[in-house]
Specification:
It is a single chain. It is built from 6 helices and 12 strands. By secondary structure, the chain is of the alpha+beta class.
Length: 368
């Protein structure tokens, strides 16, 4: 049915009034746009009530008008991600393959850095100079167990120097050249290390036999060793400093005491060599040969009161020998004892004179 055949066939819109309404609406919209786009004034009063009302009404309307745009954008992203998921997955897989070697390298560097920090944090008591080296080759067999290190006599390393890791003692140096040295492990059959049991201070000898756990021999004392006791270097013989950790005691299958080495907890690749020869190098010779009072500070000058007292005492000591005369010794003061009090009358009683003995008379009469 056509529009003119319906109930509104007699409805006529006046052209003049329609144009007038359109013009008025356009003017109102222009005024509103001008007010909305107006710049802020420096004065706070520039934001008047009219503009505040316009902004209050324009906010919800702008949100309503912007909602379809946001929905359209979200729908476009959804469909784009759905249809391009295969290509995105391929791109991500390629990036993952490129980053995986870097991840492995970062993990390896992290482990090396952690070991470096642990080794650099080693402190010995007393302080001993340490040299860092790396194991470049390994010699293993039923009897020989040793490593070649990339540091030698150019770093001050000598035969007999102990070798440690961040875990504990691993061996000692048995050969040195200019830039390479050979380390003999504690498990080698030629290794002999004097040790002590930390709990009882009992002495023993750690002997390598080619296995992963060296033996404890010549243990002194009954019940001196128990399972789990820490084993340290004893320092006997001067070949090793005292107190370097080695491992824990454990009972072997054959019933003998063995040691689970701390150095088995990690790979032996980075080591530190203790430049230790004997105990004489731990103390400076000048400190040993110094006079007993060489380290004492000079006494401060006496004050005026102290100087007067010292002079008075010296003068009294000088007068006392002169008053006693030459050759006379000063009598020592006898210890005083309390005496009983005697009445004064008893002290004043006169003592009768003693009668003189009779003179004998000769038999011949008078005197000649």
């Amino acid at each position: 049915m056509a529009f003119r055949d319906g109930p509104f066939d007699q409805f006529k819109v006046p052209l003049v009034w329609t144009a007038a309404v359109v013009v008025v609406v356009a003017l109102i919209a222009s005024v509103l746009l001008i007010l909305v786009d107006r710049r802020h004034d420096a004065d706070a009063d520039g934001y008047g009530p009219v503009r505040a009302g316009i902004d209050a009404g324009a906010g919800p309307l702008n949100g309503i008008f912007a909602a379809p745009v946001r929905w359209a954008g979200a729908a476009s992203d959804y469909f784009g991600g759905y249809f391009f998921a295969v290509s995105e997955n391929r791109r991500l897989k390629k990036e993952l393959e490129e980053l995986q070697p870097w991840r492995d390298q970062a993990i390896a560097l992290k482990n090396v850095n952690a070991r470096y920090e642990a080794m650099l944090g080693l402190r010995t008591e007393p302080v001993i100079t340490l040299a860092t080296a790396r194991a470049v080759s390994e010699s293993r067999g039923p009897f020989a167990k040793s490593f070649l290190l990339d540091a030698g006599s150019d770093k001050g390393i000598r035969i007999g120097n102990p070798v440690i890791t961040e875990q504990g003692l691993v061996g000692r140096i048995v050969g040195v050249t200019g830039g390479v040295s050979r380390m003999l492990l504690l498990t080698d059959v030629a290794s002999r290390t004097p040790v002590l049991i930390d709990r009882t201070d009992a002495r023993a000898l750690l002997t390598g036999d080619g296995s992963g756990n060296p033996k404890l021999e010549f243990v002194r004392g009954v019940g001196a060793v128990q399972a789990g006791d820490r084993v340290l270097t004893s320092g006997d013989g001067g070949g090793f400093p005292r107190g370097v950790p080695i491992g824990v005691a454990a009972r072997g299958i054959d019933g003998s005491w063995r040691v689970k080495l701390f150095s088995d907890r990690g790979a032996i690749d980075y080591v530190r060599i203790m430049l230790f020869q004997d105990f004489s190098q731990l103390v400076a010779p000048d400190a040993l040969n110094a006079a007993p009072l060489a380290g004492l500070a000079t006494a401060p000058a006496p004050s005026a009161t102290q100087a007067a007292a010292i002079g008075d005492a010296a003068a009294r000591r000088a007068r006392t020998p002169a008053a006693a005369g030459p050759g006379s010794a000063r009598p020592q003061a006898a210890p005083t004892r309390s005496r009983p009090t005697v009445p004064s009358t008893a002290r004043q009683v006169p003592v009768p004179p003693t009668a003189a003995p009779p003179v004998p008379v000769p038999a011949g009469g008078g005197a000649a």
